[in-house]
Amino acid sequence: MNPAELNYQPVATFENYESSRANYKMEKGAPTRQFIAGVVVNLASVALGTCLGWTSPMGPVYSSNDTSVNPLDVIPDTGEKSWIGSLVAMGALIAPFIAGPCAEKFGRKLTLLGSSAFFVVSWVLLLTTSTVGQLLAA
C-alpha cells in the first residue's frame, strides 16, 4: 500500500483537550485545613520512625548501674538488648499481613486510627516499665 493513499485522521487535538478542561474547576481548599491534614497523615510515619529509633539512645540508659537513670530493676543482658531492638522490626514484618485485611474490612482510616491506639499503649508501657519483660511487651 502506498503511503500517499492512506488517509490519516487525528485522534485528538490540543483544542479538544483545552475545551474538556474548561468545564472542570478545582475546589479551593482552606490552606489551614490542608496543612493540618498533611501533618496528621505524616504522624504515622513519625510514630514508626520514633519506635524504630528509640532503642539506640536508650541502650546506654538501660545498661547504666545508676538507678536514677535506669528505670529497670535489673540490667538487661546482651540477648535481652537484642530482643528489645529487634521486636519492633519483627512487628513491622508481621503487621502488613494483619493491617491489609483490616483495611479491607474496616477501611483505611479506622485501621490507621486503630494502629495509633497500639502506639499509644506501647509508649505508655515504655514510660511505666520496671522489668525487662514489660519492656519487651511494649
Automatic annotation (TrEMBL):
GO molecular function ontology, one term from the record: transmembrane transporter activity
Residues passing through the membrane, by range: 35-55, 83-103, 110-137
Annotated keywords: Membrane, Transmembrane, Transmembrane helix
Subcellular location: Membrane
UniProt keyword annotation of Iron-sulfur present: no
One Gene Ontology cellular component annotation held by this UniProt entry: membrane
Keyword Secreted belongs to the record: no
Source superkingdom: Eukaryota
Topology versus the membrane: Multi-pass membrane protein
Residues annotated as domain Major facilitator superfamily (MFS) profile: 37-138
InterPro entries xrefs: MFS_dom, MFS_sugar_transport-like, MFS_trans_sf, MFS_Trehalose_Transporter, Sugar_transporter_CS
Protein's recorded name: Facilitated trehalose transporter Tret1-1
Species per Swiss-Prot/TrEMBL record: Culex pipiens (House mosquito)
Phylogenetic classification of the source organism: Eukaryota, Metazoa, Ecdysozoa, Arthropoda, Hexapoda
